[in-house]
Design a protein that fits this description.
By secondary structure, the chain is of the alpha/beta class. The protein folds into 6 domains: about 5-115, Archaeosine Trna-guanine Transglycosylase, Chain: A, domain 4; about 125-210; about 245-300, no CATH class; about 315-500, 3-Layer(aba) Sandwich (Rossmann fold), CATH 3.40.50; about 505-585, Helicase, Ruva Protein, domain 3 (Orthogonal Bundle), CATH 1.10.8; about 605-800, Ribosomal Protein S5, domain 2 (2-Layer Sandwich). Helix content is about 45%, strand content about 20%. The chain contains 26 helices and 24 strands. The strands form 6 sheets. The chain has a 7-stranded mixed β-sheet. A 5-stranded mixed barrel has the order 1-3-4-5-6. A 5-stranded parallel β-sheet has the order 8-9-12-7-13, sandwiched between helices. The longest helix is centred in the first third of the chain and has 53 residues, at about 190-240. It is elongated, with a radius of gyration of 46 Å. The relative contact order is 0.05.
């Protein structure tokens, strides 16, 4: 195929844009076309039987094929073959014929340009031959230090006498940048093309010589390393045969390498301490006791993940979704948790450094979800979770680490937690922080003061490591059952989020949504194999568990799952087990009467008090009897000092009410002496409390009870027994009483009202201050089932309860 076979130039021909290759006239190359304009240009050339020009795109080109994105020069040639590929591309076989230059554009789609052939200028034959000899010499030199020119190409360059073809052959073989290739391509002066090419060849020769020298050095170095490795392996075998070993030297070198790798991420203090211990270890006799102790230290210290952190960005939306997914109800705790992390996220977004507030402490009865909330937080943040059980912790060194002078010394639990997590910013759960014990071996709560203080834990010193650790990026979450047992300075370091008891309806939802599916899965059961009716599940919650949370309920469901699994194996014909009220006793051992239901029959000397316990709220029936005597009072039922004082205050308040005639006494209730009966002496009504001894008892005597909140219940029961007036048994009450007869606010209102709801009480008396302040925290179903009456004076209480 010759250029003369086509119409004369200049001519209007299609343009194909090429991103990768820089083509030359002598080349036959396959081109893979994916751009629509390129495909249209190739198609037009084939249909019209015309040539095409392939122009390279500029290096900075991005976007659609435009004339401005192409170099204004390229190779004119013909398309020998065209094949459509399955992926939508088109493959064409292109034969280059001549260099050409784009004069102007003619059409955009497809690209068509007015093109003319680039003709080289005539030069002195003698001079150009001399320059050509220099070019061939440089090509031979470059071929000696590189793999650019295969032998057949070198032979072609030596034997060819077409100057411009030689230049094109050389340019196509060496690595030219697009701009360099373009400048050589469009140059019409053959002498200048040769001189520019010589300059490039000289630079390329120097670069390849340098590369060859470097490769030679690297090869020599690798050979040396391989030789040393071979000799060391031989030496090891010789030493093993002789009974000696150099593994200790290798261990020391390994410690040095580990320390070097961590140097940039650790503090200068930590680096100096570990480096000092490595040098000491290298000088010690391997059989000495100090060597073993120092080696253990180095293994611990070099395992600390200095600078390693979970990189996931904090998003409160993910925290909120995870909390909602894992926990039902608990709106207030969830809201407070999200607020806590909202502050952290805002500080991250605005680049504010520093700790963002107090440590969270979840407080509440067992089984309400304190630890599982922390698990959900760790899951949402995609950080490792470390749980440190503080229950019964007595030795402060368990937290701070033992000094290395002691046998069996090791880092504290905090440091071990960081090593296990392999990150410096895990979520650390300090479980049962209220059960830390103080003994002669130190006070662990004092160490917790530093660990949980955002201002101090940046430089927490572990006694074992003997350098400071930065704990400021750790998220600490504590859990506690009873906040009152935590020392005041430690309480000041934490922000408490109270998690209260669940209502029966909340327990039902938790059981049906979470517990039952989880337990069935744990015991290999399918959902289709077990059916629990709604009444049966409610009866299970009401009569078979006694708790504020759902831990015992989970145990009961696990017990049920085991029985069902056995039943399915022993009776293959059964495909589905249904639990109803009728067969509930077959799967559960015995009922636990959580709270006794009210009889709604008024009685004298028995009142319903409400109490807070570690497992939630409870209804306490306070009983009283009167015996002829001299006005003394006896208290039983394992009562604490505060509750005894509350009873004495209540007795004094009732005496005042009788003296001021605010509590009416029937004269027939006053016991008379024989003489008073004979003489029919008029007796003062206030004599009633002087002629009876009272015995007040709070049942379940084995359970310790304390607190002032039974005050108004004590007033009610003493008033009832002295006046012989009955107390409404469907009313429960809670409130502290003062000597002046005021009803004072109490704590634990949510648990107490839930207990009253479970006992089917119709009315509850609470202090006015609690009514104004705490009623928003009470579940709506409890408020709907109870008439909650606020009281501020004992007279109001007696008016409500005495018949």
């Amino acid at each position: 195929m010759k250029l003369s076979d086509y119409k004369a130039f200049p001519a209007d021909i299609p343009v194909i844009a090429e991103d990768e290759l820089f083509l030359y006239p002598f080349m036959i190359s396959p081109l893979f076309l994916s751009d629509e304009k390129n495909i249209k240009a190739a198609t037009k050339a084939i249909e019209d039987g015309s040539l095409v020009i392939v122009c390279p795109t500029k290096p900075s080109y991005e976007g659609e094929r435009e004339f401005e994105s192409l170099y204004n020069a390229g190779v004119v040639g013909s398309i020998m073959r065209k094949v459509s590929l399955p992926d939508g591309r088109v493959k064409v076989l292109f034969q280059g014929l001549a260099r050409a230059k784009v004069i102007k554009k003619v059409q955009d789609d497809p690209l068509i340009a007015h093109v003319d052939i680039i003709n080289a200028t005539n030069v002195s034959s003698l001079k150009i031959d001399a320059i050509l000899e220099i070019v061939r010499e440089k090509v031979r030199a470059l071929a000696a230090v590189s793999s650019y020119f295969p032998p057949d190409l070198l032979k072609t360059i030596e034997e060819n006498h077409d100057h411009n073809r030689i230049i094109d052959l050389i340019c196509s073989s060496v690595k030219l940048k697009k701009e360099q290739a373009y400048n050589l391509f469009v140059e019409t002066d053959t002498e200048k093309r040769f001189l520019d090419l010589i300059e490039y060849l000289i630079d390329e020769i120097e670069a390849n010589k340098l590369q060859k020298e470097i490769r030679s050095k690297v090869h020599t170095h690798i050979e040396k390393i391989n030789k040393e490795y071979f000799l060391k392996e031989q030496l090891k075998q010789i030493q093993k045969e002789l009974g000696s070993d150099t593994s200790r030297d290798e261990e020391i070198e390994e410690y040095r390498n580990k320390l070097k790798a961590k140097k940039e991420k650790m503090s200068e203090e930590a680096y100096k301490e570990i480096h000092k211990q490595i040098e000491r270890f290298s000088r010690m006799h391997p059989d000495s006791s100090d060597a073993s102790m120092t080696q253990t230290y180095l293994e611990w210290a070099l395992e600390i993940p200095f600078g390693e952190e979970s990189k996931k960005k904090l998003k409160i939306s993910e925290v909120e979704n995870q909390l909602d997914k894992d926990h039902f109800s608990l709106e207030k705790p969830k809201e407070r948790i999200i607020e806590f992390f909202a502050v952290k996220e805002l500080m991250e977004l605005r680049g504010v450094k520093g700790n963002s507030g107090a440590i969270i402490c979840f407080s509440g009865p067992p089984g309400v979800g304190k630890t599982s909330l922390a698990n959900s937080i760790a899951e949402a943040l995609k950080r490792p979770l470390i749980r440190i059980a503080l229950g019964g912790l007595e030795d402060v060194n368990e937290l701070r680490g033992h000094r290395r002078t002691y046998v069996g010394a090791m880092p504290g639990r905090i440091t071990q937690g960081l090593i296990d997590a392999k990150k410096m910013n895990p979520v650390v759960v300090l479980d049962e922080i209220d059960k830390v014990a103080k003994t002669g071996r130190g006070d662990p709560t004092a160490a917790l003061l530093e660990i949980l203080d955002p201002e101090q834990n940046k430089e927490f010193r572990d006694y074992y490591l003997n350098f400071n650790l930065d704990l400021s990026k750790v998220i600490f979450i504590a859990t506690a059952n009873d906040v009152g047992t935590i020392p005041a300075p430690l309480r000041d370091r934490m922000e408490f989020i109270s998690i209260s008891s669940y209502t029966p309806q909340e327990k039902y939802e938790i059981a049906s949504r979470y517990l039952i599916p989880q337990e069935l899965k744990k015991h290999g059961l399918r959902k289709s194999e077990v059916a629990i009716s709604k009444p049966a599940l409610k009866e299970l919650i009401h009569s078979y568990t006694r708790e504020a949370g759902v831990r015992n309920l989970r145990r009961r469901l696990a017990n049920m799952s085991r029985k069902v699994a056995r039943e399915l194996l022993e009776h293959p014909e059964i495909s589905r087990v249904s639990l109803t009220l009728k067969n509930l006793k077959d799967y559960f051992d015995k009922t636990v009467f959580e709270i006794e239901k009210t009889t709604k029959v008024p009685v004298v000397g028995v009142v319903n008090g409400l109490a807070w316990t570690a497992v939630g709220g409870d209804v306490l029936k306070i009983e009283s009897i009167r015996i002829k005597g001299k006005g003394s009072m006896q208290l039983t039922g394992s009562l604490g000092d505060i509750m005894k004082e509350s009873a004495l205050i209540a007795y004094s308040v009732v005496k005042t009410l009788i003296d001021t005639k605010k509590l009416k006494i029937d004269p027939q209730n006053i016991p008379l002496s024989i003489k008073e009966k004979e003489e029919k002496t008029a007796v003062d009504l206030s004599e009633v409390y002087k002629r009876y001894d009272l015995h007040i008892h709070v049942p379940d005597g084995a359970t310790p009870k304390d607190g002032p909140s039974a005050g108004i219940a004590m007033v009610s029961v003493i008033s009832s027994i002295l006046s012989s007036r009955k107390i409404r048994s469907e009313i429960a009450m809670t409130g502290e009483v003062s000597l002046s007869g005021d009803v004072l606010p109490i704590g634990g209102l949510r648990e107490k009202l839930i207990a009253a709801h479970k006992a089917d009480m119709s009315k509850v008396l609470i202090p006015l201050k609690n009514y104004e302040r705490d009623l928003d925290d009470i579940p709506q179903e409890v408020k709907d089932s109870l008439e909650i009456v606020p009281v501020s004076k004992v007279e109001e209480v007696l008016k409500q309860v005495l018949v």
